[in-house]
Amino acid sequence: MLDAHFQYSTVFDNVNARRDLGFEHMIPFRKAVERTIEWIQANRGIDAWDMENDDGLITAWRENSRSFLGRISDS
Length: 75
What we know:
It is a single chain. With 75 residues, this protein is mainly alpha-helical. The protein has one domain (3-73). It has 4 helices and no strands. It has helices at 3-7, 15-21, 29-42, 54-73. The longest helix is centred in the last third of the chain and has 20 residues, at 54-73. The chain is flat and about 40 Å long.
């Protein structure tokens, strides 16, 4: 179930864009977070979490994490 999640790195940065394209941030990080919060509040917020599925999600995460770690440690 979570194989696709572990398939790619979830760490992102803009080093290459800065180096290759001259990318610069248009707004400071804090302002971007403030805008995001304002948008969420203006657009009905975030859907409530379905707490009934927490145990299943945690179990799936642990099982897939063990499976993933087993595959990469065998390499």
